[in-house]
Structures are given as C-alpha cells and as structure tokens.
Input
Amino acid sequence: MTSGTSETDSEAYELASRTADAQRAKLHEWQRNQISDVDMQIGETWFVWGFYSAMTNDIERRKRLLVAYINTKYGHGQNSEQLVGEIAKIAEEENRLFDAIAAAGRQAYREGGDAHLATIATIFLNVIRNH
Output
C-alpha cells in the first residue's frame, strides 16, 4: 500500500462505483429482498472504505473520496461528512462486522473481484437473523 495512488479522485470514484454496482448486480434476488436499502447502503459504504483503504493509506484522502462517493451516489441529502467521520472511528475500533466488510473492499480493489458484496449480504442476513 502506498501513500498515494495514480488514480485521480474522479477515477477512484468511477472504479469504486463500477465495482460496487457490478457486485450489487450479482446479488441473488432473495438477498436483495431480505436486506433493506439502508442496510445495503451501510454495507456498501463500509465496503468502499475498505476499497479506498487499499487504494491509499492517506486517511484524509480516503475520507474525502468516501464523502464524494456518498454525495455522488446517494445525493447531498444526508450528512456525508459526519457519516464518514463515524466510519473512520469504527475503522479504528474492533468491530468484526465492519472489519470483514472493509476487508472484502480491500480484496476487491486488489483482485478486481466481483463476488464480495454477495458475501457481505450473507453476513448481514446472518447478523439480522441472530439479533
């Protein structure tokens, strides 16, 4: 991992967005029907945090990239800076669910894989069913 990348901010967004969209499209219908949009958005933002973590270890750039991702993908109606601040705080703590999802994002960036969100959906379903 390097402190910077060769991708511009807009290229980083496009790469993360394409990856997340491709993976979301691979979800089984039963997974899409059982996970709320809000839960999937949380999972996706955690996943993209991991994706950007593999792209750069510059925490401020990672935060900026995720704020831009949320604003572009979901609109400016929510407090994206506060949300990213909360995600950065979770990343510093021990949270097995967050760690698993962020690790899938890092792996997707490194491998260019496209099955990671299906794994995340399964993790979410297990958590929802067991709580």
